[in-house]
Fold:
Amino acid sequence: MPETLLSALFRIVVLLSLATSAISAQTTPSSSPLRVGIAGLVHGHVGGFLQQNQHRADIQIVGVAEADPKLASFYESKFSLPHTIFFASVDEMIEKTKPQAVLAYTNTFDHRSVVEACARHGVPVMMEKPLAVSLEDALAMQAAAQRGKIQVLVNYETTWYRSNRAAYDLVHENAIGDIRKVVVHDGHSGPKEINVEPWFLNWLTDPKLNGAGALFDFGCYGADLMTWLTDNRRPDTVTAVTQQIKPDIYSRVDDEATIVLTYPKAQAILQASWNWPFDRKDMEVYGQTGYAITVKRDSVRVRLPKQDEKLIDAKPLDPQESDSMNYLRAVVLDGVQPRGLSSLETNIIVTEILDAARQSAVTGKTIRLADKQ
Structure:
């Protein structure tokens, strides 16, 4: 073979190798630890986060913002956190510690102020569900995110359920036909009954700080799942009924709620409760030709045309979508674009549904979202 041809082939191989390396560098997840700050400690889920993630090699907690010194001291002592990482405000925490992302564990009402603070500093934020106590706040957060060019994510436990992803895939593969009815159950026996921390209970039972009671606390799960299943289609109508079955415990908020959503050819029933004997988070999806019923985190009962019902194990999730921190890392460090259950776009619609449900429960009327555009 002539040497000039050999040289040309060698150059081509080298160029292909460099191109492959460049592509690999763009798609390989980052191995660097994500520097995170925590905004607020009044949300009880912060304890679970610290217990599960404090010593993860890919997560580094660099700052905590909490205005209540007693609460800050409690968590500092319980988890042996350095005193030097605690600050009184989100702004000060961000300025001093330079986190790459902020995790919000405030009450729901304060989500807006956390997002606005993060937007001022250009820092992405992930909060515990739901996004906001009102559509007004949700839209203000969206505007702040756009100004600050930051990502805003919402963490739901059910986002990381393999069973929900399996149901979604069956719908989008048209395995069970077009959706006709979805029933979502989310709840437990009540926050006081399950012994949440007193600072958590205080705001969960405050209609200003939580938006409502079970209606917002658990109704958000079904609203999120249904919006995801319908590819972010807003429902035509929202109707809700709430009750205070235990007014001696929950005197200012509902403890029982049912939300009915209608679409042109489908209906969703979202059941949210602080009165069930056991905790549950599951979903029934009925299509024209089959159904999928989720069973806890990892299984789904499926019936297809001309087949008996089968209980199947759902396939594992993509590692980048297997838990909230992996997903946050993927968005912040690897440039993954948020979509679906955690995305701001989806959760604007979720908040609109919850806002309309609260209005419906108060007025006893069905709310048409088309009239609110």
About this structure: The two ends are 72 Å apart (CA to CA).
